[in-house]
Design a protein that fits this description.
Blueprint (H helix, E strand, L loop, with lengths): L7 E2 L4 E6 L2 E6 L1 H7 L2 E5 L6 E2 L4 E7 L3 E5 L4 E6 L2 H4 L3 H4 L8 E5 L11 H7 L3
Length: 126
């Protein structure tokens, strides 16, 4: 299972890549494996400012729909529009072309509460 060490993680199986005051967010390899074939990603919160752990969208797989929770407070500044036509990128490249949103972080200290790759491995029993 792929769990890149340079990323941070949440208990909700999302990954976070922080670059300055921008965080890129997606779901982990573990999450996409649990969900199965992803058929739709919906994010209608672009340009909205949300608090940490608020729902920013949903990911729909063949068998289930899961909420996506914001890992850090901030404004959603971009949605990966490639997922509208190719949601399967979340399955094939969850840490690359399958990213979901970019956030302008409003509370940088919240990043200290995210999980390291080792903490995340422990969470999923790796």
């Amino acid at each position: 299972m792929n769990i890149p060490s340079e990323l941070k993680y949440t208990k909700d199986h999302e990954w976070v890549k922080i670059e300055g005051d921008i965080a890129t967010v997606g779901i982990t390899d573990f999450a996409q494996g649990e969900l199965g074939d992803i058929v739709y990603v919906e994010v209608e919160t672009v340009d909205e400012t949300l608090d940490k752990e608020e729902v920013f969208g949903t990911v729909e797989a063949v068998k289930t729909v899961s909420d996506l929770f914001l890992p850090l407070s901030g404004e959603i500044v971009e949605f990966n529009e490639a997922l509208e036509d190719e949601p399967e990128k979340v399955n094939s490249d969850p840490y690359g072309e399958g990213w979901m949103v970019r956030i302008k972080i409003s509370e940088p200290s919240e990043a200290d509460e995210l999980l390291s790759d080792e903490d995340y491995k422990t969470l999923i029993g790796g």
